[in-house]
Amino acid sequence: MDILLPTVQPGLLVGILDVDDKSIEIINDVKYTCKVAGDCCTQLIVPVTDYDIHRIEQHGIEFDQIVSDDVPALIMPKTKSGALEKNYTIKRKPFTAECTFMEEGKCTIHEFKPFSCRIFPFQLKYVSDSKVEVLIHDSGYCPSVLACGSEESDTEKLLKDLLGEISNELDRREQYTKKYGKSIQI
Ligand code: SF4
Asked: DSSP state, 138?
């Protein structure tokens, strides 16, 4: 029987990805089908990189409309180099925790939403220059993730898709860095 995520250990390690040799290692099997609960867009602090901001700005949205000025910047490790990177957080609507881009339960910038939104409910933890651990978001907010047995899981596909998303993001960010200079590092 499937077990709902909030009853399993928060921050469950799903697997390990190597972005250089494109390998995946499955640690715990999971199954994920988005139920469009929207809690990820109404409850959580969403980190936004300068590259995310650049992509959103290209659609006519200004910096002040994207970035929160009441939540401190998050310091996160970069996946590839291990260098620390300062990330902004997404703007919230006044008096609620809801993301400013959420309208009637839908993301209005879905096609160019931040990387952390694209990989939710997973989050990455730096292991080495090419390796990241993949964890289920440790808030337990997402009701769409199930821990389950290997026969019924789609862990391999989830991790392969995630690896593709990460590789594409790293390539795009590398091109961005070549063109506009380094992102904020400390
Ligand atoms: S940008 Fe879109 S997906 Fe990300 S938190 Fe906001 S509404 Fe949700």
From this structure: T
